[in-house]
Structures are given as C-alpha cells and as structure tokens.
Write a structure and sequence with these properties.
With 173 residues, this protein is α/β, with parallel strands linked by helices.
Length: 173
Amino acid sequence: MNKLKRADSIIRKALKRWRCGIACSFGKDSITLLHLVRQQTDSIPVLFADTHVKFRETYDFAERIVGEWGLKLHRTTAPAWDKAIWERDKAKCCYQLKVEPFNNLVSELGLDAVFVAIRRDEHPARAKASYVDRMGGVTHIERVEFDHQRVHPLLDWTETDVWDYIQAHRLPY
C-alpha cells in the first residue's frame, strides 16, 4: 500500500470509530494532513495550540486558511509564563504551554481522537511512534481527566513526500 492510500485508510477508519479533531500548527505538515482529512469530512474541529510566541506570519496565515477553507478553529489558552521557566526546564514549559492546555481543549470538545501530523523522520523519539497512540492521564491545573487517541496518518511520510503533496495539490504554505 502506498503512503497516500495508507494515510487515507487511517483517516477513514479513525473517522468511523471516534469523534475526531485535528491538531494544526499551520505548518506544511499540518496543512497537508488538514487537506487529507478534509477530503473525507469538512466538519472536523481544528485545534490550534496558541502559545502566544508564534511568528505574526503564522497567525496571519492561520487566519487566511480558516477563512478560505471555512474551518471550525478552536484555540488553546496558554497560561502566562516567564522566559526563565523555558530556560530552566524546557519540558515543563512545553507541557504547561502546549500539552496541558491542548488536552484540556480535547476534553472540553468531547473528542475521542486527534489527528496529529508527525513523521518518523523528524526525531528519533517519533521513529518509534505508532499510527495510533493512546493518551491518558490527569492534567495538573484543573485536575481534568483526559483520555484520547492520537492518530498519525503521515507517520511514514518524508519531508519530500509532504512537499510533493503540497505542490501536486497547490496547497498554500
């Protein structure tokens, strides 16, 4: 099975099994995955982890795509933070700014699964990922329980595959 057919199959099966959303940073991988998912459904919640430290161009691009594609965008609300936290403990900072607010949003929306545009070639830790990973636990801020699947349709894709797809479908980036 080629990579595109595998990705389409993973998306189709997840949409049949769970109430899904899609994580979107509005980068090239996210736009590719968003386009693939929207071939099968146009009513999926789009989750944007807003850390308030992205480039202005990212926000402008996100606003443009949301308008042009008619997306249902849901933003996380990151807590106020101090640069010193990032310098002392990057993992804790990432958790507090991205992971915890994101999991809270997934719970608030009642989602069972979230599509995430990770690729195995991005990092050694991602090389071991599965097409579907279960996330579960309790967040620290409000003690909100979360339990959802992370679905990775682009796991076997390379950066070249993503750029080829973007060019073939004339996607904005």
